[in-house]
Amino acid sequence: MIGTDAVLFVFALMFLALWFRHRLRAILAGCGVVVAYGVSEVVKLVVQEDRPCRTRPSLAECPEVGDWSFPSNHSVIAGSSAMAIWFLHRTYGWIAAVCALLAASSRVIVGVHYVHDVLAGLTLGALVSWGIAVLLDRWQRSRTPDDAPTVVMPRLR
């Protein structure tokens, strides 16, 4: 669906904007999205739940047979992107969270996913991205020595 894909494009623009300020952290946060997507593909192979559009009409074209419903990949990407953006920039994070909810909701509204597909996708994506962000934060702290001297410059009058 064009609307859901547009939201994913908004996330890409946010990552690009944050790249100018955070460089490596923004790239690694984006890697969390890729890892979350990979985890969701493995879960899909294990669960193999058919889509609701197979048994009832939908507003969007039903994906091919074998493209499983649980969890929603769009929701995984949305949830992981929102969490990664949240760790980089709180204001963008709020915008990304609203976009993630809209993207996930649209998948149910058009009839290609069940509610539990998108809730699981948002949760899975957010948890994986959060884990990557925590590891990134620990790695960054380990590279910055705590005993570094603090330099205080005297105030000029």
Automatic annotation (TrEMBL):
Domain called Phosphatidic acid phosphatase type 2/haloperoxidase: residue spans: 24-133
An example Gene Ontology CC term for this record: plasma membrane
Entry's Gene Ontology molecular function annotations: hydrolase activity
Transmembrane segments annotated in the record for this chain: 6-22, 92-112, 118-136
Localization, UniProt: Cell membrane
InterPro entries, alphabetized: PAP2/HPO (IPR000326), PAP2/HPO_sf (IPR036938)
Residues spanning the signal sequence: none
Membrane topology: Multi-pass membrane protein
Keywords, comma-separated and alphabetical: Cell membrane, Hydrolase, Membrane, Transmembrane, Transmembrane helix
Pfam family, one: PAP2
Protein name: Undecaprenyl-diphosphatase
Lineage, opening ranks: Bacteria, Bacillati, Actinomycetota, Actinomycetes, Pseudonocardiales
